[in-house]
């Protein structure tokens, strides 16, 4: 392993070790909110623009994942239909409401919104929309990043019911390339995926105690087809991506 790859691994591992303690209480709060929704047969939506949308895909129809999760996947706010224009969309007021209306979000639902910078229009509008409906909002964001660039603007952290501060520096990348002024090694996706999977694992553990943990199996595991088919049939009516 080279010095730079070793530095990246060490940096990421160190951050995860720190967050394991720093986020213990807010992760427990998030798990309690999601657990309450699950027991009421509600849904947990996951939304992010740009690279943050990968957290929504991470939990969708995933082996070991919870079947009541619903990814909010809108091409114009992601990257594959045009990365440059997606940056414009996420900063433009008024675009998120029609995106979310097709998902049928209801009172008692939960939406997890991932935004590292925490100041763009799209994630904040998503939070406002959810709260108007009566859904709970969980934010995965960097307080340091949003505080550094807000300049009086509202932050996602200001409008969420539960805030999971990923502890990342402004700009996301964590490694300096000596003599260049450049930084490499973004970590927000790795950290976000770890945090959300840890929370869902806690929720699944609690649900399993009553015998109703709707968890997908890997398609190649014995019995997976039958179990997954039942879960899809149960949850498809409110998940347009199944």
UniProtKB/TrEMBL annotation:
BP GO annotations: carbohydrate derivative metabolic process
Which superkingdom, per the lineage? Bacteria
Domain named SIS is located at 30-209
Please give the Pfam families that the UniProt record associates with this protein: SIS_2
- What UniProt keywords apply to this chain's record, in alphabetical order? Isomerase
The molecular function terms in GO held by this entry are:
carbohydrate derivative binding; isomerase activity
**What InterPro entries would the database entry show?**
RpiR-like_SIS (IPR035472), SIS_dom (IPR001347), SIS_dom_sf (IPR046348), SIS_GmhA/DiaA_subfam (IPR050099)
- Protein's recorded name: Putative phosphosugar-binding protein
Organism, as annotated:
Rhizobium fabae
Its taxonomic placement starts with: Bacteria, Pseudomonadati, Pseudomonadota, Alphaproteobacteria, Hyphomicrobiales
